[in-house]
Specification:
The protein is of the alpha+beta class. It contains 3 helices and 7 strands. Strands 1, 2, 3, 4, 5, 6 and 7 form a 7-stranded mixed beta sheet that branches. The model has no long low-confidence stretch (mean pLDDT 94).
Length: 122
């Protein structure tokens, strides 16, 4: 599986309402001990990530996560932008994920998420 396919399946898991199918998607692309961190949470383990996504989706009925950039990768790291698209088609500002990739399996072993655009430092 390519890195692009891995990340697109990961993003699809964030849009999947059925926890069992979401788990199947994540089984394919993240390690069992995945660490997911963003400004609001720090989750460890695939089962806890499945549950965390359920909570996020519960407050955003009909929303989906889509990758909104190319994937920039080097060594065992990559970054990509994503966007939350609401059921009515409007979108929230892009987020950015930085991922660490398990070299043996090609699965994501850590995801560090940021919300919104970078702040202007000038």
């Amino acid at each position: 599986m390519t890195l692009e396919e891995t990340i697109d399946i990961y993003c699809a898991a964030w849009s999947e309402r059925d926890p069992a199918f979401r788990r199947e998607l994540l089984d394919r692309v993240v390690t069992i001990d995945i660490r997911y961190t963003d400004p609001e949470t720090d989750v460890r383990g695939r089962a806890d990530l499945v549950d965390h996504i359920s909570g996020v989706l519960a407050g955003r009925v009909g929303a989906k996560i889509v990758r909104s950039s190319e994937i920039d990768a080097h060594h065992d790291m990559a970054r990509f932008a994503w966007r939350l698209v609401k059921a009515d088609g409007t979108a929230l500002p892009d987020g950015l994920d930085i991922v660490s990739i398990d070299e043996q399996s090609g699965k994501l072993k850590a995801v560090l998420g940021f919300f919104g655009p970078l702040k202007d430092g000038t």
